[in-house]
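Quick log. Single chain, no ligands specified.
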Amino acid sequence: MMTHANRTEQHTQNGAVAVHPTDTTELVSRCVCDEADAKAQFYNEYHLLVERAIIRKLALLLGEHPLRADVEDVRDDVFERLFAGQDSPLAQLKRPRAITSWLITLAGNLAVDHVRRWVRHERIRDSLAREPEPPYGISPEDAAITGEQRARLNASLAELSAADRLVLELYYLHGLKYAEVAEVMGLKLNTMAARLRRAKSKLRTLLETGDGNVA
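-> predicted structure:
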């Protein structure tokens, strides 16, 4: 019987690593048990397969090559679900040797779910979008500065995924509370909070690497 220590890895045409069925069963079991090294190994072996499945599905659904940010958004969702311990769909996997086709199907299904949410999110954004009027008594110079800041902010927001843009806008621009944002986005409260933190970090990085920060 092969073990993790002496197995021979073979790369398939789609870039995934062909793992011996016994090793796959063991690896899946260790992931379900929330072992960090097993999850790291699983991610390293299958993330390219998952990303390619997502790209194919999104391209089919959107009619164009998807943005990298959107692909990463779906990929992160896939592995967040896979690494949910006993709640992971891996816990219900009956045939570990069919892991490749199973992952492709899972990634495709979550890509469809994300597109549906993006459509809903864009409709919400459109209904909420209002260009704010300049405050009463603001000078033309201050109005110009505010416009420049808004332009930089909008340019940075455009680099984010649709879901990241929406969570930031709902919380910061429209002043919704955590529970309200989670309800609008159809997410659990802790999932929404984690997404908000990640989105804020991504936006900060984009602003800091641009021409200047938004005050």
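The chain has eight helices and two strands.
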